Amino acid sequence: MTAVSVLGTGLMGSAMARHMAGQGLDVRAWNRTADKALALRPDGVHPAASVEEAVRGADAVITMVPTGDVVASLAARFLPAMPAEAVWLQMSTVGGAWTDRLLRLAADAGRRMLDAPVSGSSQPAEQGELVLIVSGASQVLERARPVLDVLGSHVAHVGTAGEASRVKVIVNSWMTASVVAMADTMLACEQLDLDPVHVLRVLEDGPLGMPYALQKAGEIRARAYPAGFPLSLALKDLGLLAEERDRPSRLSDTVREMVRRAVEAGHGREDVAAVAELLRRELL
After folding, report:
1. What is the pLDDT of residues 225-280, one digit of tens each?
2. Left (φ > 0), alpha (ψ -120 to 50) or beta: where does 191 sit?
């Protein structure tokens, strides 16, 4: 049986841990707030009392935490304790610069790290339908394949180590911009006293249909924003991309500013679609 350690059981880490355990993998989990890991016990996940305990005997170690500095602090603890033949699957969205640092930490410890952020929210994570964006040596990827194939419906091998994290922040920027555009579209319908169903039907029936944006349109219309991808994390990821670009982007900077204002207005824990509430206050 493949043994997997999950470090970080927030929204995404817990969904991934539950799914892997349901598929028969031996899953151990650790979280800084221990109650979140303990809550996974009924789902067949074994909570660990420490990072070091979590990784002992693991075939793969997954890190899924919010920021690069948190990943680095965990790595200092788990790299010496994880088996030499294990693969570290670094799935947190931390950007390219942090990924380069983490790769050096792994190399210095004589361990193998796969740059492997995921595309998808908690719902596809629960269902094993994530898209896994992977970069690094093919032989390391193949060793991790039994875990990757359980977690995702598609593994996109995008190049050398570090490229996957750069692809991820660009994908997240595009996704967030598309949600902001859909929020603006829904509010334009209100301003023009139009039933948004007509606009959505045209989008859905033609080549412009985008399932994710159409899903967010439903949340915006209902004014209900369960956190598949929280606005606070969207803001973090937009910042990671801005740090790596060699010159500003007017569009990306505008989206980032709107998301920042929505977070400051108290919507940070809600889904990215909650940016519509900011627009509603400003436009209606």
Report:
1. 999 899 999 999 999 999 999 999 999 999 999 999 999 999 999 999 999 999 99
2. alpha
Choices 1.10.1040.10, 3.30.230.70, 2.30.42.10, 1.20.1050.10: CATH for 165-283: 1.10.1040.10
**Regarding the domain delimited by 3-159, which CATH topology (the fold level of the hierarchy) does it fall under?**
Rossmann fold (3.40.50)
Q: How far apart are CA 282 and CA 8, in angstroms?
A: 37
pLDDT at 55: 98
Domain ranges of the chain: 3-159, 165-283
Residue in this structure with the two tokens 């570290």, named with its chain if needed: 88
**Distances 229 to 10, 114, 193 between C-alpha atoms, Å:** 12, 23, 30
User: Is residue 168 annotated as a catalytic residue, yes or no?
Assistant: yes
Task: Name residue 61's beta-bridge partners.
Answer: 5, 88
Do residues 115 and 164 make contact, with C-beta atoms less than 8 angstroms apart?
Answer: yes
Percent of the chain with pLDDT over 90: 95
Closest CA to 96 of 157, 161, 162: 162
CB 147: neighbour CB atoms within 10 A? 26
Give tens-digit pLDDT for 94-133: 999 999 999 999 999 999 999 999 999 888 999 999 999 9
